[in-house]
Prior knowledge:
Layout: E1 15-16, E2 23-24, H1 40-47, H2 54-63, E3 66-71, H3 77-87, E4 96-101, H4 104-118, E5 126-130, E6 133-135, E7 143-147, H5 148-157, E8 164-169, H6 177-192, E9 197-202, H7 207-213, H8 218-221, E10 235-239, E11 246-250, H9 258-272, E12 277-281, H10 285-300, E13 308-313, H11 319-326, E14 334-339, H12 342-345, E15 352-357, E16 360-367, E17 372-379, H13 382-390, E18 398-402, H14 406-411, H15 427-435, H16 452-464, H17 478-484, H18 489-501, H19 504-514, H20 527-537, H21 543-556, H22 561-566, H23 571-590, H24 602-613, E19 617-620, E20 628-631, E21 637-640, E22 653-661, E23 665-672, H25 676-681, H26 688-692
Parallel strand pairs: 3-9, 3-10, 4-7, 4-8, 5-7, 8-9, 11-18, 12-14, 12-15, 13-14, 15-18, 17-22, 21-23
Antiparallel strand pairs: 1-2, 5-6, 16-17, 19-20, 19-22, 20-21, 22-23
Magnesium ion is lined by residues 77-78, 170.
GO molecular function: ATP binding; ATP hydrolysis activity; helicase activity; RNA binding; RNA helicase activity
Domain Helicase C-terminal: 262-437
InterPro entries: AAA_22, DEAD-box_helicase_OB_fold, DNA/RNA_helicase_DEAH_CS, HA2_WH, Helicase-assoc_dom, Helicase_ATP-bd, Helicase_C-like, P-loop_NTPase
Amino acid sequence: MAQFWKPGTEKPRLLDDGEGGVLFFSSSYSSSSSGFGFSSTEKQRQRLPVYKYRTAILYLVETHATTIIVGETGSGKTTQIPQFLKEAGWADGGRVIACTQPRRLAVQAVASRVAEEMGVKLGEEVGYTIRFEDLTNPDVTRVKFLTDGVLLREMMDDPLLTKYSVIMVDEAHERSISTDMLLGLLKKIQRRRPDLRLIISSATIEAKSMSTFFQMSKRRRGLEGETLEPKVEPAILSVEGRGFNVQIFYLEEPVSDYVQSAVSTVLSIHEQEPPGDILVFLTGQDDIDAAVQLLIEEGQNDRKKSELIVLPLYSGLSRAEQDLIFSPTPRGKRKVVISTNIAETSLTLEGIVYVIDSGFSKQRFYNPITDIESLIVAPISKASARQRTGRAGRIRPGKCYRLYTEEYFINEMPAEGIPEMQRSNLVTCVIQLKALGIDNILGFDWPSPPSPEVMVRALEVLYSLGVLDDDAKLTSPIGFQVAEIPLEPMISKMILASGELGCSEEIMTIAAVLSIQSIWASSRGAQKELDEARLRFAAAEGDHVTFLNVYKGFLQSNKSSQWCHKNFINYQAMKKVMEVREQLRRIAQRLGIIMKSCERDTTAIRKAVTAGFFANACQIEAYSHNGMYKTVRGSQEVYIHPSSVLFRVNPKWVVYHSLVSTDRQYMRNVVTIDPGWLTEVAPHFYQQRQLSHMPH
Ligand code: ADP
Ligand code: MG
């Protein structure tokens, strides 16, 4: 057993950087273990860079309230540190070690890896919780992986998170909204719980600014030395990586179609370069599925190209699909993983030697003036580009092909990304803080404060949803109920309204479908067939009602995967819809919502949708020949997305679920409404006067 520091024994060697208590450890001590008697996973663990810092990490966590750990992707932070803590006794006495991740898929993947390393069954000693999926056993789970969003929800029932001894907020550099909220809230909890330890870990971070954020108040600092409390100054530990050199190639001329360009780069690597797997960074399910399809087609009649094992990687993949990604590449084959930015730092894939970087990712942007939030394929930052490049140097020197010019990289790419907190709609964030009893939202202690306009907008929307009252307090029961449902407030409101409108069975299905990326199968190369399949289910009232037809068909087929295949429906997605729907039913039951079917009275259904999504109402432009709509609130130009059943149908009035932005703002998931409903369901939001001068 490797040694680790115990209180009362000689401390490991520290280097003080002379700047106010910030500690760096020298990495000069090595693991002297011969490896004798260890299983091969144990040896693998010992080869990871963090292993050398085991004693140092445990010492810092013991003696500091907050420890910041910076280390290159793949150095073992996520999989090893929770195990070190467990071995050192932090989970004794029924306590639990938590490790949060921004992404659901990362939670599942690292939890199953850690369970495997520890030789235990996933869901027992090691478990995970993501929204709508809880694989833990409160009696035995000691190491728990969860999304930061789930941990925020746990605070609603247990505001001080009393069952946790150590909370490791991982991937902090991603700066997701939930991570930032969590950091702000944990800082508060720390004042009340000196026994709690925080670890903030990330691949790249301005460790100093994070450290400044976690400095505690003077008052507490005075106690130091007299009590057994940990130091309040955060410690910083930097884990030295061991990445190999990666040679970078740029395009000489920019390309317009990065999917095509990525595909041809894969093929020429395969033709010209020695063995080694390829990791391609694209932006989302659509372009990833497209690239996978193109590569599979290439391999169909070509022996050399058929050596490629092409795998997509994005959230929502089944466990079986995830396993393929992590399983070793068979001899004579070359794996090509086509991924969103999840493989940038959250997941480590062994065997990658070549990286292809499109230079883009899908990002959320929000404009508080127009109140429009959309997902945009936007340029990544230099910091992200460097991370992507680093993925090629894990096992030996690698190569990175950037699908943009060097000039572009140097002159146009922003140095750092903007925290999600500062480019998102904060409706969900505000309601969560309110539910946690934080009344002064504007004065909350954020790592990077959002703009007051965005906060005010969120308060306004919540007020119009009936979730907040005149004093900006949660209303009872609606506000508390909406906060209780783990979905965006607009969907939650829609669910509550459905109880009164007598269509909760239908709305539950719609809510479940909306919480899934897409229920349709990938269309690349078969757009016509997909469109035809969609027409079979299409309802004149729009996408939401169409979902009900698909769901009904799926049930009538006895949930058959063949039926899904025949109809261009994603079987995995439908299985997920069933699961989510079941969970929502349970929540609804708890909230006292009466489950009732409206037997296809689509007016009730559309009214319920409007009760949640009235802020997304749009009217077609009177003389528009190209299907241009304007949002009622902000007069913004929007169009129906080609994937909607209402594309080219262009009804007069619609509400949409979300916007995606490419060359235009496109509404995804659209349903027809009667404009009269707007003043009925949201009188504060739409005053009569506002609508009256619009032609009906
Ligand atoms: P970090 O969090 O520092 O990026 P991780 O703890 O995620 O590093 O990974 C450490 C190492 O564990 C990786 O380099 C890889 O070798 C191995 N590993 C992690 N997850 C898996 C997995 N799902 N399958 C196989 N190996 C894995
Ligand atoms: Mg990690």
